[in-house]
């Protein structure tokens, strides 16, 4: 655990270097029999989507709330959607099942409200993993703290997750909300800071740590995204605290879960392959950050690389953007699935 404050000056000496090929000693990621990814918060909710053999959808009727304009004083509601991401990850190996929370969404209440409507207890999670420090992935920690009381809960973060950031636009700079290490510890979270890969849940889940940047086209955030070094604002293209979750489903391959994918979807997948020595990509779920003019040129090479990897399931969410969604759906029609708050994706050996 790091007790020193994160310093963006470290970026100059810790920028990931290109690393081709396999690691000499691959990380021993234990294969699992089943993983379920429940999207508690995503940018979209579609109550008319239907379930199938690999997805379980939460439609209308997931909850009831007071509404005096209706006869009886109540109405049926679905899931909350917002510009944020949160996923509950259940991993089963043999008879043992463990649960992680990956990111917590934008607002204090969306994640916990959706969990309540689905009848999910957040008291059963074994740890929290934050993909990075951006506010649309950590805002729900407020609600989580209120739901679980003061019980200590491990939280894995990159030490740069506390970085103060802003968007320096032509009309003026807007500072982004900054996560507070002291406040989280005060709420009872056991904050564990790691730059390097971590194995959780008896070696069944890998947190990638900093991701090697090996592609020629995934360059990160545009010029307006800046970070405070302690003395000046500098361009922060890499968002070095970006990390992903990786699970190896027995006889199927890797399941990769991203928050925003600031490191680049292809960089992340290649990094996971290199760390584990597992070549097969079974599923890619989460934000791929391909929306908007700065990222749309990255769509064609990303789609081409993912098509070559031939995953069985691709669920682009959150910040992926509609152009990338359409491109991925066209290129991978049997693998692509529309994301939606309250959907569970089941992947089994």
List key phrases describing it:
single chain, about 350 residues, alpha+beta, Metallo-beta-lactamase, Chain A, 8-stranded mixed β-sheet, 6-stranded mixed β-sheet, 7 helices, RibonucZ/Hydroxyglut_hydro
Q: Which class do the helix and strand fractions yield?
A: alpha+beta
SSE succession = HEEEEEEHEHEEEHEEEEEEEHEHEHE
The helix content is: 10-25%
Q: Give the overall shape.
A: globular
The level 1 CATH classification is Alpha Beta
Question: How many separate domains?
Answer: 1
Task: Report mean pLDDT, rounded to a whole number.
Answer: 92
CATH architecture tag: 4-Layer Sandwich
Distance between the termini: 35 Å
Discrete helix count: 7
Strand fraction equals 25-35%
The CATH superfamily is identified as Ribonuclease Z/Hydroxyacylglutathione hydrolase-like
Counting DSSP E segments of at least 2 residues, the number of strands comes to: 20
List unreliable stretches of 5+ residues. 1-6, 8-18
Quaternary organisation: single chain
Biggest pleated sheet:
8 strands, mixed
Task: Determine the CATH topology.
Answer: Metallo-beta-lactamase, Chain A
Order of neighbouring strands in the sheet with most strands: 2-20-1-5-6-7-8-11
Rounded to the nearest angstrom, the radius of gyration is: 19 Å
């Amino acid at each position: 655990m790091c007790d020193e404050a994160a310093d963006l000056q470290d970026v100059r000496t810790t920028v990931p270097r290109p690393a081709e090929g396999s690691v000499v000693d691959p990380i021993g990621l234990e294969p699992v029999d089943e993983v379920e990814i429940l999207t508690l918060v995503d940018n979209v909710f579609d109550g008319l989507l239907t379930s199938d053999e690999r997805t379980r959808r939460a439609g209308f009727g997931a909850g009831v709330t007071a509404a005096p304009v209706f006869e009886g004083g109540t109405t049926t509601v679905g899931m909350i959607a917002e510009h944020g991401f949160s996923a509950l990850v259940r991993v089963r190996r043999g008879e043992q099942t463990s649960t992680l929370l990956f990111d917590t969404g934008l607002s204090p209440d969306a994640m916990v409200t959706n969990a309540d409507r689905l009848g999910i207890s957040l008291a059963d999670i074994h740890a929290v993993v934050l993909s990075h420090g951006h506010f649309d992935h950590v805002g729900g920690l407020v609600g989580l703290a209120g739901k679980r009381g003061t019980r200590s809960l491990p939280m894995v973060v990159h030490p740069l997750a506390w970085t103060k950031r802003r968007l320096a636009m032509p009309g003026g700079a807007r500072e982004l909300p900054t996560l507070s290490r002291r406040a989280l510890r005060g709420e009872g979270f056991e904050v564990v800071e790691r730059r390097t890969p971590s194995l959780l849940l008896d070696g069944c889940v890998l947190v990638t740590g900093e991701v090697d940047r090996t592609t020629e086209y995934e360059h990160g955030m545009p010029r307006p995204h800046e970070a405070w070094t302690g003395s000046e604002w500098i361009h922060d293209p890499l968002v070095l605290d970006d990390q992903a979750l990786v699970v190896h489903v027995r006889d199927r391959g890797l399941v990769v879960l991203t928050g925003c994918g600031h490191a680049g979807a292809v960089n992340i997948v290649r990094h996971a392959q290199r760390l584990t020595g597992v070549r097969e990509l079974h599923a890619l779920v989460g934000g791929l950050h391909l929306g908007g003019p700065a990222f749309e040129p990255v769509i064609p090479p990303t789609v081409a690389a993912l098509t070559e990897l031939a995953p069985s399931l691709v669920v682009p969410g959150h910040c992926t953007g509609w152009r990338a969604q359409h491109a991925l759906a066209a290129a991978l029609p049997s693998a692509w699935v529309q994301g939606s708050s309250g959907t569970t994706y089941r992947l089994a050996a």
